[in-house]
Structures are given as C-alpha cells and as structure tokens.
Automatic annotation (TrEMBL):
It comes from Pseudooceanicola antarcticus. The keyword Repressor does not apply. This is Amino acid/amide ABC transporter membrane protein 1, HAAT family. It holds the Pfam family BPD_transp_2. GO terms for biological process: amino acid transport.
Amino acid sequence: MFNLFLLQLLNGAQFGILLFLVAAGLTLVFGIMDFINLAHGVLYMVGAYLMATFAGMTGNYWLGLMLALPATLIFGLVLEFLVFRRLYDRSHLDQVLATFGLILMLSEGVRILWGSAPLNVEMPELLSGSVPLAGPLKYPVYRIAVIAAGLASAVGLWALINHTRAGMLLRAGASNRPMVAALGVDISRLFMLVFAGGAMLAGFAGAIVAPILSVDPGMGESILILTFVVIVIGGVGSIRGAFLAAILVGVVDTVGRTFGPIWLRMVMDPSAAAQTGRMLAPMLVYLLMAAVLFYSPTGLFGRRGAK
C-alpha cells in the first residue's frame, strides 16, 4: 500500500507539473491583460502535435523538441496578432465567445491536418528505463525528467519575474496596468511578450507529455478545465500560487482516483465502493477549490481587494 501511494504521489506531482506549465502562462495573461483565453489549451494540443510531427520527420526526439518550441511560439504570436489583439478591449463575454469559437475552429483544423487517430512519440533512448525507489518499486526515468523540467521552468519563471526588469514590468502591469502605460511602457509589446511566453510554456507541456500520453484532438480541452481550477485556487496572476495549486490539484486528483475506492471499502461493499469511488473522484478537485475559496475568496496568493 505504501509503494502504491508513493507511486501515485509521484504521478500526481508529474501531472501537477504539466498543469503548472499550462496554468503559468494563462494566469499571467489573465492577471496582467485581464483577458480570458479559453483557447489556451489549444496551444498545449498544438505543441504536442508539432512535437509528434517534427520528431517523426527527424527521427530524433531532441531535434523534434527544439523545433516544436519555436514553432509553437510563432503559432501563438500569429494568434495574438490576428485574433486576440482585437479582443483586449472587449468585454469578457466577447472574449469567452471568440476564444470558444477559436477552440472549435482549431480543433477541426487539427483533425483535417493530422486526422482523428491518436499519434505517438517515441521516448528518447537516454530517458528510457526506470530507477528503483523503494523495495521492488521502480519509476520511469522519463517521468522523473518531466518533473525536473517542470521544476526548472518554475525556478526560471520565479527568477524572471522577481529579479529582472521584465519581471518588474510584469508585476507592475498585474497590479496597475494604467499606471504602467502612463509611465511610457509599450503595453501592446508587453502583452505580446506575455502571450508568447505563455504559448511556449503550454507548447512545452504538450511536447514533453507526448511520449507518455497519446496525442489526440481533444487533449487541449481536457486539461483546460483543471488549469482554470489551478488559477482560481492559486490566485489570478500569481506564479507561486499557480505552482502550489497545480501540485496540489495534481496530487489530489491522481491519489483520489486510485485510493478513493480503496478507502470507501472500509464502509461499503467492494462493488459499491468501486462505483461510488469512480463517481466521487473527479469531484475532489472542485471540493478542494470550494474549500480554498471559502477560506480565501481570492485564492491562496490572490491580491486582496482584487476584482
């Protein structure tokens, strides 16, 4: 039982890292630009498809990753220039409707280009195999590398936001955007850079998860809902909050789905416990969100008095 718990804890941490990579850019876009982008999950999906395409073309995982990241960045910039830039001054309802329509268009475009059948990416030889953890328990090297890459990205983001001039502008823009514009900062350029960084992080998450999960047209929508849960729990505009909330959501979701039916067997018969556990497990993250909002309506690290 301990080995199973440790295994699911690591799986939850790895899932949380992926959620953080997607949520980090989205929380900055929402916190600084006050822009609701429901199509952010599409960038995660496009990153995975570009990774599958380039890795298949070159026959090399690392070359595929090096090509997929700038390609996702360029794709995000094109979307920002053609679509999102025209929505910044519109109402939240207009933003939701426009980005939802964009989800439908891009998902259909992916089906036209790559088809509906799932794609797979070969795991790199360097990161294949597993390492022993405790007793007979082993854990895949690639999943450990995903966790390490996510942690490195989190540290890099923290250093960028807290110890650079660009980070100072980001923090100032999140707190008082009109004042930043009045001081002569090019807000359009700042918005473009924020969106580009968020697009590349989401694409990076999709690229590194491609060897673990199948790449399919619906993968962006499935992660987007949990990404918004992460942002709400962590606090809009907070990278620190997004990281802690993503790990918390990933662990609660993964461990709950595995151990929920096991714990329910203590008070129910096995068949009823299994059925009830499957029904209740997806609700755990939303119960967690409700508990956090009850304690702190702006999230764990949200700005007090924020709208």
